[in-house]
């Protein structure tokens, strides 16, 4: 380990919420549709308005790919110039059956939740909220705030054995890193090359922020039992020979022991991976469940009961849930 707390690579060497008012159900999970071999499947984003003023690029769930390991939701936003704007303004809203991961490259996000969690999340700090059976939270740019806002919001699906855990929030300002010539990798969740994040996980999973300098040419060690994807945050990078532009994601499948990376400029990526998620799920709005009845009950509880608790301190009321689609929501697997 280096004097700065970083962990060098061994010889194996050769990172928010769904506020869409037209929320559509998404069915995901199940091993039957996992790509069991290495692939190069480029996923294009769908643009969605988050809150009052922030547009995001939604990579998961995607038209052709709904999960990567337990990663079930990925939004990439910015960099946005918010010097004269309110920035992120996400009113109190509910979650169940998942963890949220807030990850920033620029700016700050003030988190409040119904367990009393309160933290200002800054670049390369982990904000990890475990909803368990029920939680609510808000997210906003502080006042005053930095000029630019750039980051990603991600969800991790909880397995059935842990989806009713006590809700809680973790803020980890310092995370472990691994380094190699031209690369510094911050471990967000799980383990990468022997370095393990302090964030609580409930399935075999990894998330890492990769910062590459121009000209970097390396091979990142991977676990062949995991499926992986790479999200480009900034710069020009070739991932296994495929150019991946900022705001796009390359799905990589399973069976890889390493991943070739080459940076054409200073660049940043997010590596997401994990064991394929065995259970089939239903995801609607901000809920992950196993049946239509659970989703229906959760929506009703958010609108009429105190199940999800109360967020104190946000300047504004809670978000109303969208209407449920007609017909029962059904589980159908990982890909459309």
From TrEMBL:
Binding site for Fe cation: 93, 95, 137, 139
A Pfam family recorded for this sequence: Pirin_C
Note accompanying the cofactor annotation: Binds 1 Fe cation per subunit.
Keywords: Iron, Metal-binding
Record's compositionally biased regions (Low complexity): 317-328
Cofactor: Fe cation
Location of the region described as Disordered in the Swiss-Prot/TrEMBL record: 316-336
Domain Pirin C-terminal: 208-305
Annotated Gene3D superfamilies: Jelly Rolls
Family: Belongs to the pirin family.
Protein name in the entry: Putative pirin-like protein
Originating organism: Streptomyces clavuligerus
């Amino acid at each position: 380990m280096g004097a700065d707390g970083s962990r060098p690579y061994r010889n194996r060497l050769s990172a928010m919420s769904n506020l869409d008012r037209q929320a559509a159900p998404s069915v995901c999970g199940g091993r039957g549709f996992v790509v069991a071999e290495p692939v190069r499947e480029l996923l294009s984003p769908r643009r969605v308005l988050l809150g009052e003023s922030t547009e995001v690029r939604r990579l998961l769930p995607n038209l052709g790919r709904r999960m990567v390991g337990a990663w079930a939701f990925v939004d990439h936003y910015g960099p946005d110039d918010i010097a004269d704007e309110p920035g992120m303004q996400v009113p109190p809203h509910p979650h169940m059956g998942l963890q949220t991961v807030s990850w920033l490259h620029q700016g700050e996000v003030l988190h409040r939740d119904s367990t009393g969690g309160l933290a200002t999340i800054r670049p390369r700090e982990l904000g990890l909220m475990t909803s368990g059976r029920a939680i609510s939270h808000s997210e906003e740019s502080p006042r005053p705030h930095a000029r630019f806002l750039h980051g990603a919001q991600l969800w991790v699906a909880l397995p059935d054995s842990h989806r009713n855990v006590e809700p809680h929030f973790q803020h980890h300002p310092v995370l472990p890193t691994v380094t190699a010539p031209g690369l510094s990798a911050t471990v967000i969740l799980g383990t990468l090359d022997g370095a393990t994040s302090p964030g609580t996980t409930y399935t075999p999973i990894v998330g890492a922020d990769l910062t590459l300098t121009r000209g970097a040419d390396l091979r990142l060690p991977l676990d062949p039992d995991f499926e992986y994807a790479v999200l480009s945050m900034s710069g020009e990078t070739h991932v296994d020979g495929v150019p991946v532009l900022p705001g796009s994601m390359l799905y990589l499948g399973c069976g890889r022991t390493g991943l070739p990376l080459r940076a054409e400029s200073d660049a940043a990526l997010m590596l997401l991976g994990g064991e394929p998620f065995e259970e089939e799920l239903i995801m609607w709005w901000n809920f992950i469940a196993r049946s239509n009845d659970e989703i229906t009950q959760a929506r009703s509880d958010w609108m009429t009961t105190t199940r999800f608790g109360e967020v104190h301190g946000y300047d504004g009321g809670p978000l109303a849930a969208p209407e449920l689609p007609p017909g029962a929501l059904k589980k159908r697997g990982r890909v459309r």
